[in-house]
Amino acid sequence: MKNVQATAPGKIILFGEHAVVYGRPAIAVPVTDVRARVGLQTTGSGKGFRIIAADLGRDYLLVDAESDDPLATIVQIALKHLGQTVPDATLTVTSTIPLGRGLGSGAAVSTAIVRALGQFFEYNLPPADVSDLAYEVEKLHHGTPSGIDNTVVAFEQPVYFAKGRPIRRIRVGQPLTLVIGDTGIVSPTRETVGDLRRRRQAEPECYEGYFDEIEVLVDQAKVALEQGLPGLPAIGKLMNENQELLESLGVSSPELEQLIKAARQAGSPGAKLSGAGWGGNMIALIPARPEVITAVTKALADAGATGVIVTELR
Ligand code: PMV
To answer: Are residues 181 and 160 in the same domain?
Structure first.
């Protein structure tokens, strides 16, 4: 009997979402306060491979899964990579990462499943392999993903990421505090990315100009983050500038902007949407003082946030 457990964190994009799809760099960090958890247990029942995702109300056999089922797809891709046949086992998936809100839920579930299968077959999978396998499923979720979600989740470290370039780890000078506010609106990444693609095709020069401006501020943000606390005002200013550019790209929304405004009024020096936009989450940088944490958390809840996470960036 084998019984293994694996987990993977959520993530947020600090700077550079959307522009990263067009080859510009972006910065993302893991959010360890929320996690996807996977258990994998041999059953010996002769019934094959069963997948139970209670949060999604699903319980099915691998052989019965639809061809685009993300959980079944990652299981099959990982088994192939490990050179293993389908075991007689039950895979249980749970997650505290809200779905479809830019917190990397899909990438985290894929990563936790790959890690569990690696452990099950006693195979030490390097993060780069885990990331590559999870990327295959990101294509199902996102259509044309940049690869930033699977990278930050599988490496579980702050990353400066650009498609096709080696991954660079960011060493945050001193821990920083972030508040994540949820609009409660599910926004499929595929839709915002697809919509922006159409607009960029119609006016390439205009949108490439925005992406170039984002690239400049991502590079400045990397330097400021490496300074840590002394860089706080600069990081906040860059977050606000990034938000303005995301508004120009047409991926913000009134609900996101309401939360962003509330956070700034309550003492955040910088706030922006995080991820695909149109819904999902926003993030606000705050000084790590209890009264500011309380004020910003309350302001977000009063402004309609359906969930608030306070996390430390380190
Ligand atoms: O899935 P989300 O909400 O984390 O957004 C991903 C970030 C995008 O830049 C919008 C898309 C991508 O593939 O990088």
So the answer is: no
CATH code: domain of residue 14: 3.30.230.10
Chunked mean pLDDT (size 10), the chain, 314 residues = 96 98 98 96 88 93 94 98 96 93 93 98 96 93 89 97 95 92 93 96 98 98 89 94 98 98 97 96 94 97 97 90
pLDDT in tens, 105-158: 999 999 999 999 999 999 999 999 999 999 999 988 777 899 999 999 999 999
Burial of 246 (0-12, 13-18, 19+ CB in 10 A): buried
pLDDT at 27: 98
The reply to whether 75 and 19 lie within a common domain is: yes
| Ligand 1 within 6 A of CB of 18 | yes
Other residues' Cβ atoms within 10 Å of the Cβ of residue 95: 24
CA angle, corner 147, sides to 146 and 148, nearest 5? 95
Per-residue confidence (pLDDT) for residue 140, from 0 to 100: 83
Q: Are residues 98 and 20 in the same domain?
A: yes
d(CA 88, ligand 1 centre) in Å:
35
Domain end call among 118, 135, 169: 169
With the most atoms of ligand 1 within 8 angstroms of its CB, the residue from 12, 13, 195, 273 to mutate is: 13
Residues 124, 205, single domain; the answer is: no
Instruction: Give pTM, 2 decimals.
Output: 0.95
Can you read off the two tokens belonging to residue 253? 């929304």
Identify the domain boundary among 169, 184, 201. 169
Burial class (CB in 10 A: 0-12, 13-18, 19+), 190: middle
Which residues have a catalytic role annotated?
Answer: 149
Domain span at residue 26 reads 3-169
